[in-house]
Design a protein that fits this description.
This protein is an all-beta fold. The protein has strands at about 1-5, 10-15, 20-25, 30-40, 45-50, 55-60, 65-70, 75-80, 90-100, 100-105, 110-115. The chain has no helices and 11 strands. It is globular and about 40 Å long.
Length: about 120
């Protein structure tokens, strides 16, 4: 079993920054991809960024140039550095991992951006 726990969400002003963390625990040796997803109020879930085991990353269009995803294998943690925040970034942010043939999701961390 793999456990996923996000943290670092909160309130920020437009133009500010936040850094989200995703801690993985349990049987993580077969995890090959970790991603960040977000769901704004009343909207569908979308992909923010993904990180593969080979180090390659992908970003949603709204995240390019503003967000950076990274990892710390020693701590079994991945991060999402969010810069130049916009009010449109307000959402519940989820971390998910693909491990073997299964997906594991955290419960989300709320990000609220005000002008």
């Amino acid at each position: 079993q793999v456990r996923v726990k996000e943290s670092g969400g909160g309130s920020a002003q437009a133009g500010g920054s936040l850094k989200l963390s995703c801690e993985l625990s349990g049987q993580t040796s077969r995890c090959t991809m970790v991603g960040w997803y977000r769901q704004p109020p009343g909207q569908e879930r979308g992909m923010v960024s993904t990180l593969n085991s080979d180090g390659t990353t992908s970003y949603g269009d709204y995240a390019k140039g503003r967000f950076i995803m990274s990892r710390d294998n020693a701590e079994n943690t991945v991060y999402l550095q969010m810069n130049s925040l916009k009010t449109e970034d307000t959402a519940l942010y989820y971390c998910a991992a693909v491990c073997g043939t299964r997906q594991f999701w955290g419960r989300g961390t709320q990000v609220t951006v005000s002008s």
